[in-house]
Design brief:
Layout lengths: L24 H8 L5 E4 L5 E4 L11 E4 L4 H5 L5 E9 L2 E8 L29 E4 L11 E4 L21 E5 L5 E5 L5 E5 L10 E5 L13 E4 L14
Antiparallel strand pairs: 1-12, 2-3, 4-5, 5-8, 6-7, 8-9, 10-11
């Protein structure tokens, strides 16, 4: 059984002081196995999706959708990869990558090679959530979804590395969700424009008034495997 095989990981700590519950399949799958998950919001059960699903789109943001329409499902716009990307001190860092519009590498195209998987095959290039350099004080949309070399200038790293603005601290909250904090703006947290969590809300960086890495319920997302879409977000595995 999936969870029983992973009971040894019950004390695994990911990104903070809260232990990952080994019975929460989706968190383990997302953070350890790099399986795509839905990021379901704690407040109203909506899910994150790129504003534009097409692979050639690199200058659009993210929104909260409350209905899983066939077009989004077909394009995998409801799925995200939380991809390991090194460490910030003792905290693991991750990219938040969309499964929608990923680009399969061309045979022999080294410049398009984003690394290789366990099977030796080149990994596809995936569009990542990038953060505006001046977020959250900027009134512009503060996130874009795009390949590192395709996002606009203000969504690239100040130090010349595009990845600077695409690295996130992923913290497992005490209530079993995840919170995203960008390393370029550690006093901010992934939230919504005007703190309004409604259908088609624009995802923005908002100030983390809680002051810690766990955020608040309004900034919490529950990873859900596609097969667990019908599992209530407040379900507790015991």
């Amino acid at each position: 059984m999936y969870t029983q095989e992973r009971t040894a990981m019950s004390n695994l700590v990911v990104g903070g002081p809260v232990a990952v519950n080994s019975y929460d399949n989706a968190i383990v799958a997302a953070l350890l196995e790099n399986r795509p998950v839905m990021l379901v919001h704690a407040f109203n059960g909506g899910y994150l999706r790129p504003a534009d699903l097409k692979e050639e789109s690199h200058d659009k943001g993210v929104k909260l959708a409350t209905a899983l329409d066939p077009a989004t499902k077909e394009a995998q716009g409801h799925l995200w990869y939380i991809t390991p990307a090194g460490f910030f001190g003792q905290r693991p860092l991750y990219f938040i990558e969309s499964a929608a519009g990923q680009v399969s590498p061309q045979p022999g195209a080294v410049e398009a090679d984003a690394g290789r998987g366990d099977d030796g095959a080149p990994k596809p290039q995936r569009r990542r959530i990038a953060v505006h350099q001046e977020a959250p004080k900027s009134t512009a949309d503060t996130v874009q979804v795009g390949l590192p070399d395709k996002v606009d200038d203000k969504w690239r790293g100040k130090n010349g590395a595009p990845e600077d603005t695409q690295l996130w601290v992923v913290t497992v909250t005490p209530w079993g969700g995840v919170t995203f904090v960008p390393i370029t703006h550690p006093d901010a947290i992934l939230g919504f424009k005007d703190h309004a969590v409604t259908a088609d809300s624009e995802v923005r960086l908002t100030y983390n008034w809680g002051g810690d890495f766990t955020g608040t319920v309004i900034n919490t997302f529950y990873p859900r495997l596609p097969s667990e879409w019908n599992v209530p977000y407040h379900h507790v595995f015991t």
